[in-house]
Design goal:
The complex is a heterodimer of chains A (245) and B (79).
Chain A: H1 3-26, H2 38-50, H3 55-63, H4 65-86, H5 90-94, H6 106-128, H7 137-153, H8 160-163, H9 165-191, H10 212-241
Helix pairs in contact in A: 3-4, 3-10, 4-9, 4-10, 6-7, 7-10, 9-10
Chain B: H1 3-21, H2 25-45, H3 49-78
Helix pairs in contact in B: 1-2, 2-3
């Protein structure tokens, strides 16, 4: 196909997609006029039933916790697969010797070093308050994992394999996934239904409230932090820390 | 639709086009990160702070970092 024909095909396709999108968007309900029943029902029952005003967390970790359980397993399997693929050449690398790596500038090192601690604390805050304010296990977990990138920028030569950090990250990922699964089964044992909220609900707005929702947030946070950090660490070790001779 | 939402939509559209128009993958990773931030602002403007926070973390941490790391690995293959 020549360049000219390709451009014509692309333009026609883009025009069609644009037209359909405009028709679809103009047919939407006006902003703030939600037509479905579920949001309204949840907004009515959640504060009384679960002692939390965070409807999203209540939906994700309680009412539709089963979906989250499936997503946890997808993330777990995806990261296991990626880590297995990245590890194929590890043995060869172990004979390659010490890494050659350009030293980062002082500004990069200072910024990275200054931010590692606050970023970990902020991630933990987002996880811990997932049932009170926006955020939760997923966002907080990714933020915690981002601290690993900052540590690398700070010039910390993370000898992941030697200090056993990879094993630690693998452990965190597995622990988080297993924790959420145990929480689901706990509902089955303690209250007779999978993922049923079986812990005391407490006072709305407090850190320890909403029953199993914050526990689920913490489990997902640990898993996501471990999973994202594991993929980044495997890449770092493979691609950056051990340059070929 | 408020002026804020309209502005966010336009910024997202422009940045999305810029991501496609950027040919150098190294720069594309950075532009994609800024696009993620704009998308997060759009989600925030339609009152979806949870989604905005997820988009912010994935769009500005995970995607650019993984693209950069994958590029480092590819470059090492070429050598």
């Amino acid at each position: 196909m020549s360049r000219r024909v390709r451009s014509v095909v692309a333009l026609v396709a883009l025009g069609a997609l644009g037209t359909v999108l405009v028709i679809a968007v103009t047919g939407l309900e006006p902003f703030g006029h939600y037509p479905g029943p579920y949001g309204d029902v949840l907004a009515k029952v959640v504060p009384g039933e679960r002692h939390t005003g965070q409807l999203v967390a209540a939906t994700v970790f309680d009412y539709r916790g089963f979906d989250t359980l499936g997503e946890e397993m997808i993330l777990f399997a995806a990261v296991c697969g990626a880590a297995a693929l990245l590890r194929v050449r590890r043995r060869k690398r172990e004979e390659a010797g010490t890494p050659a790596r350009p030293a980062p500038s002082f500004a990069t090192r200072a910024t990275g070093a200054a931010l590692v601690g606050p970023v970990i604390v902020f991630g933990a805050y987002v996880i811990a308050n997932g049932h009170i304010t926006p955020g939760g296990g997923f966002s907080g977990g990714v933020i915690v994992a981002g601290a690993l990138v900052l540590a690398y920028a700070a010039g910390q030569v993370v000898r992941l394999r030697r200090v056993g950090s990879i094993a630690l990250l693998e452990g965190a990922e597995a622990l988080g996934a297993a924790g959420f699964l145990l929480l689901a089964v706990g509902g089955l044992i303690a209250a007779g239904a999978l993922l049923k909220n079986f812990l005391p609900l407490g006072t709305s707005g407090l850190l320890l409230s909403a029953g199993t929702i914050p526990v689920g947030n913490v489990a997902v946070g640990i898993e996501v932090a471990g999973a994202v950090a594991l993929v980044i660490a495997e890449f770092l070790e493979q691609a950056l820390l051990e340059e070929p001779e | 639709m408020t002026a804020l939402q309209a502005t966010c939509l336009i910024v997202v559209a422009v940045l999305g086009a810029l991501v496609v128009a950027t040919r150098d993958p190294l720069r594309q990773a950075a532009v994609a990160g800024i696009f993620g931030l704009a998308l997060a602002a759009l989600f925030l403007s339609v009152q979806a702070p949870d989604v905005a926070l997820s988009e912010m973390t994935v769009g500005t941490i995970v995607i650019p970092v993984l693209v950069l790391l994958a590029m480092a690995k590819i470059r090492e293959h070429d050598e």
